[in-house]
Design a protein that fits this description.
The chain has two domains: about 1-75, Ubiquitin-like (UB roll) (Roll), CATH 3.10.20.30; about 80-155, DNA polymerase, domain 1, CATH 1.10.150. The chain has about 160 residues and is an alpha+beta fold. Helices cover about 35% and strands about 15% of the residues. α2 (about 80-95) packs across α3 (about 105-115) and α2 crosses α5 (about 140-155). It has helices at about 25-30, 80-95, 105-115, 120-130, 140-155; strands spanning about 1-10, 10-15, 50, 55-60, 70-75. It has a five-stranded mixed β-sheet, with helices on one face.
């Protein structure tokens, strides 16, 4: 086991994990943060997307111990975030999810797009979501929801 320190969803932790344990498995099994979904486990589908030091990352490809002295934010860590609130509202109203498996990773990717002001057009949104696969929706409602959330955030004072 290897000891490490991290901040997960605003809470400082000191823990240990086997050097080969992925961040996704650690979050789900040791922290009960099950919003981080495991799909392909090869970094392709985006279901396990989290933020590490504010940047989107694949939790299935990241070792938990590699997060020593880093900040990790999962889908559960966005309480009170106005961008995520706008996204959740627009996803609900636009019916931008079906089975919901991809949704946590999709929301985190969309949050990053809006925060970086890269959700200004359908083409930008689709390019930004290229690493997040949805098998149910066909993306039309997801793209519309992200565009609507981006417009709401911009109207209310920017990202």
């Amino acid at each position: 086991m290897t000891a490490f320190r991290a901040t997960i969803n605003g809470t400082a932790i000191i823990d240990d994990a086997a050097p080969r344990v992925s961040l996704a498995d650690y979050l789900r099994d040791r922290r009960n943060l099950t919003g981080t979904h495991l799909g392909c486990e090869h970094g392709v589908c985006g279901a396990c997307t989290v933020l590490i030091d504010g940047e989107p990352a694949r939790a299935c490809l990241t070792l938990a111990v590699a997060c020593d002295e880093r900040t990790v934010t999962t889908i559960e860590g966005f309480a009170g975030d106005r961008i995520m609130a706008a996204l959740r509202d627009s996803f609900h109203r636009r019916h931008a999810l079906q089975c919901g498996f991809c949704t946590p990773g999709m929301l985190i990717a969309a949050h990053d797009l809006i925060r970086r002001r890269r959700a200004g057009s359908e083409a930008e949104i689709r390019a930004g979501l290229a690493g997040n696969i949805c098998r149910c929706t066909g993306y039309t409602n997801i793209v519309a929801a992200i565009a609507e959330a981006a417009a709401t955030v911009a109207r209310e004072g920017g990202a």
